[in-house]
Amino acid sequence: MKILLSITLILFFCTDAQSQMKRKDSIRIANFKLDVQLMDELKEFDFQHYDYIMLRVKDSLNPLRNECTFMVNIDSCTLKYKFQMTADFEIRRMEIDQIDYYNSNDPCKEILGEITANLIEVEGYFAQSIQPFFEIDRAAFLFYGRVNGYYEISYFQDDFFSEFHSGLLYDTICGYLYTGCKR
């Protein structure tokens, strides 16, 4: 009886471990597909000379935490959308309809410049004139953008957003790109 119980427990743990490995592999493959889509978006934005900011969130255990939110100026309009991984490891694009920061009646408002103006003037962000190389796997969070032909890149770990920080970059990310911030 003890042998049968031991064999059952071993099989259970082996199956569970194999299932977890398969899940991690599925998340890794889906993250790769998401990163390819993001790189295609960034190439197009740079080719068209659009201003944009993005936040890439990466999690190797929970597929629903893998996402990338964009704000991009196209034809004097600020558009906001995100790519998000589903529970079954598919990548979907979600449009975020209206950016109603100013509660304007204007359906097409360029607010990215207003959002990033203080980052540039007060804090000195977006100062790199040459597009930086970035490592998409370097951290759990990647903030990246191009405004007026200048680039900014910042990496963060999970603990950065688990507690409140003062500063314009934290406010910008938490106010416009990421909903998981401590307030």
Can you describe what's shown?
By secondary structure, the protein is an alpha+beta fold. The chain has one domain. It is 39% helix and 23% strand. The chain contains 4 helices and 6 strands, in the order αββββαββαα. It is elongated and about 75 Å long. It starts with a helix and ends in a 6-residue tail after the last helix. The relative contact order is 0.14.
Layout of SSEs?
Blueprint lengths: L1 H47 L3 E6 L9 E8 L2 E9 L5 E6 L15 H10 L19 E7 L2 E7 L1 H4 L6 H10 L6
Antiparallel strand pairs: 1-2, 1-5, 2-3, 3-4, 5-6
Summary?
This protein has one domain (2-177). It is 39% helix and 23% strand.
Q: Quick one: overall form?
A: elongated
Strand content: 15-25%
Low-pLDDT segments, ≥5 res = none
Side-by-side strand order of the widest sheet: 4-3-2-1-5-6
User: Could you say how many structural domains there are in total?
Assistant: 1
Radius of gyration: 20 Å
